[in-house]
Amino acid sequence: QAKLVESGGGLVQAGGSLRLSCASSGRTFSTYPMGWFRQAPGKERDFVATIHWNSSTTGYADSVKGRFTISRDNAKNTVYLQMNSLKPEETAVYYCAAGRPYSFDSRGTNMNYWGKGTLVTVSS
Question: Exposed, middle or buried, 74 (CB in 10 Å: 0-12/13-18/19+)?
């Protein structure tokens, strides 16, 4: 049973940092692109960041460039999202996702597997 589980969310003050983790089980995602998405209250789910299966390339939403960093450790079947200088408007449920084997798109399209999300609340 393939599964993605996010962790690391919580409450942080504006300007603070959090590091999210996404652990996989039931399947090895070492050949899959991975990504992070978020859904703020009352809004649609938006793309945040994605990473190539071998970490050679990354893609970010314009709003997070320079502040967020996506990385992965294939030996641990884990992907991370380091979030710095967080803003109140970035309060959202953050979701981990996996795409298709040996594919990559800098916009994080065509994701097939999704975690249940972890809530990040940024206070002003």
Answer: middle
